[in-house]
Amino acid sequence: MQVLLIGNQSSTILLFRKRLIEKLLDKGVIVHTLTMDNDANAFKKIIDMGAHPLNYQFSRSGMNPFSDIRNTFRLAKTIKNIKPDAVFCFFPKPVIFGSLAARIAGVKKIDVLLEGLGYCYTSHGTAESFKKKILRNVQTFLYRLVLPLCRKVMFLNPDDCNDLLIKNRINVRSTEVVGGIGVDLNEYAFSPANIESIHFTMVSRLLVEKGVREFVRAATKVKKIYPNTKFSIAGTFDDNPGGISSAEFEEWVRSGNVEFLGQISDIKSYLIDSSVFVLPSYREGVPRSTQEAMAIGRPIITTDVPGCRETVIDGQNGFLIPPWSEDALAEKMVTFIQQPELILSMGRASREIALRKFDQEQVCDKLVSIILS
Fold first, then answer.
1. For 6-50, what is each residue's pLDDT tens digit?
2. Structural domains of the chain ordered from first start
3. Residue ranges of the alpha helices (H) in 199-260?
4. What DSSP letter does each residue of 102-168 carry, written as one string?
5. Backbone φ, ψ for residue 315 (5° rounding)
6. How many Cα atoms occupy the beta-carbon half-sphere of 331 within 13 Å?
């Protein structure tokens, strides 16, 4: 049997689909991957695993419909040459155009996973621009066109399923909420946090909707009272419409309240060096970074919004705060500073929840069963 995975970048294949590929290969499946990039180093790693990587032409964030239509037919031709028995698509553009191309190529078994609804479906607490409304309507139209072609449409959280399918009356053959994609609980082993020098960390691209502004503003407030507290963000710029401007970023750097580390390769060591993990996002699927922090044993401060609320039992392994509120975030940061014993007790609770909910072995077994059914 041949299975084709269609994503956006080969680095995300390695980061999020490595264990899935290994499990498929163990069952004697021939695995192909298609991504929009042509990263020779990442492709070599995929080949070394035993899979067959190829690239396809598409813009991750471009919105030219004529280019997308042309590239969809090119992608269909590539898929037809591969001759897969089943196709698995993830991330919005691959889900929409990968599924359509697979159907054009004659593939009958098409499964998709929406790991979050993204920019167009995320509320920012302010009036929406006309452009964003148009983009959401276009994207919803495309989902209405494509998702009924798929055998199974999967989500990480129930809110995404309700907000996309139920509210928009999109009828599909089958749906399933699979929960978080999980982490390697052995690799991300429990490590007690340092409470002598408290360090609030965040792992995120520099996007408004990730709550980066709220993190920086809350850090600025807390620094005035507790100047020795450390704050840092691991993540880089993104060409998403909601990206932080370079001018705003330079102002943050000059203030010196938050250390910006850029994209780092060793997330595990970064999380081990942390005391409390923070993600004040406006909406998520179920964030991988939060799952990793929980596995290591870190308390979480995150927002009471779709995806984020799946990771925290308020008061047990961290705190849920309202979205868009730097004051609420600063208040909970101060709580941990004033009661450092909470960092240890809530961190242990995070590890216990991760063991129950976020074991990648269980999630990958479920995906393999669906893809091969």
1. 999 999 999 999 999 999 999 999 999 999 999 999 999 999 999
2. 2-182+360-372 (3.40.50.2000), 199-357 (3.40.50.2000)
3. 212-225, 246-255
4. HHHTT--EEEEEES---GGG---SSPPPHHHHHHHHHHHHHHHHHGGGSSEEEESSHHHHIIIIITT
5. 85, -10
6. 8
